[in-house]
Model the fold of this input.
Amino acid sequence: MRPLNEELFKEWLKSGHVTISTLLLQTYKQLGLSNENLVFLIQLKSFVDQGEGFPNINVIADRMKISRDDAFKEVHALINKDVLTINTKVDEEGKSKDEFSFDLLWEKVLLCLKQNNNEKMQMQTEIDSKELYQLFEKEFGRPLSPIEIQTLNMWIDEDHYKPEFIQMALREAVLSQVYSLKYIDRILLNWEKKNIRSKDQVEKESKQYRNKKVQDSISTSQPSKPVPMYDWLKDFKD
Done:
């Protein structure tokens, strides 16, 4: 191994480092940036990170081995794509100076992340919906009708019930041997009325009802009878 050149090492330390967000590398194509745009942007940012708010474009051109005109074309391209702006600031001495700003770039990166996240959520919702259809058809022992599929979609898209929440309502209906979406809809409305939002809350509600029935049967000294399933329509019947 060759001995480390101390002077070169010091020079390397003095040159500093430029930090590039992985998010930018993931989304720059979505922003409409070319590979050349990205490299020029990184070069520009390297100067700004070292305190040169408005670096000499000729230096960047020399680094990239491109002409001065091409370098200025890159600047204009980034500005036109709304990822780079030139701001004029006034210092303490009253002198104005120009600085490059990447604020629009980061705003666009965040917007891309939100869009990507929404698309992933939409895809997951579609997957969950498909699995939900299959589960209902399995429990009902028949294909769902177009109206029933529309009802399921309304629960998810309009009422914003989570698929797993609908599955819990289906389970309660199956345990009660009532294979009807209208019945399940009443279960969901009853839970919403009581602010029941989780599996634990559903199980707690059912357990409390069963325990109450057991206590009532003990207090009246009547022969024990099978504890009926929770009637989720009770509140609506009352």
